[in-house]
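From the shared-data thread, chain only:
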Amino acid sequence: MARRRLGFWRRLAVLLLLPAMTVWTKRSWRGMENLPAAGGFIITPNHMSQFDPLLVAHYIYASGRWPRFLAKASIWKVPFVGFMLRKTLQIPVERGSVEAVKSLDTLIEALHQGGVVVIYPEGTTTREPDLWPMRGKTGAARLALVTGAPVLPMATWGAQQVHDVRTKKISLGRRVQVSVAVGKPVDLSRWQGQAPSRAALEQMTEAIQLATRDLLAELRDESPPPIYQVAARTQGTTEPTA
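Structure, as tokens:
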């Protein structure tokens, strides 16, 4: 999307956030060449802080595309925030309700229109003490199976210096080093054309999450844990997010 076509509200959001993000963070961005220049696709970041969506948005905007996040509908009830989310084309979801089906329809339409859809497979910030990804929910896999849109894994690191879910502390007084990396599309070809069975969606989600975990390991320069040891401790997390 050409930036001149953003319109008033999206341009206002950029004017409000971009200067702060530029001053607030020292950025290391990798893999931007993996983002398609046109056409719809799905981004699946890890989620370890309430600050990391801003990193994701900044990265995607810098690539020349506009991010459309799928997020909890409760955020839309926050004064001004909810208004801006609506005006900037973000997508609310009420989990476990008829509205969740409507959200899926909106996501499908967004992809067909060439949009960039951001889905956090974990559905919430990670509960792992070392901030590795948890087992994902199957919403991104379901959307990919229905639309055929590519799924690009994304890893972020450094947001915990601003908001740390382990301590609940927020630090606003210093510039922070942050890293974002995007990998090549996850190979989901073996499931193409299959019905969205529970088994297929869980296998696709595993492939997506392992790709994200491995990207995060590169950013952290550490060996990652086996992600499904995490899954054994977080039962009941396979329901779709959309």
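Residues 230-242 have pLDDT under 50 and may be disordered.
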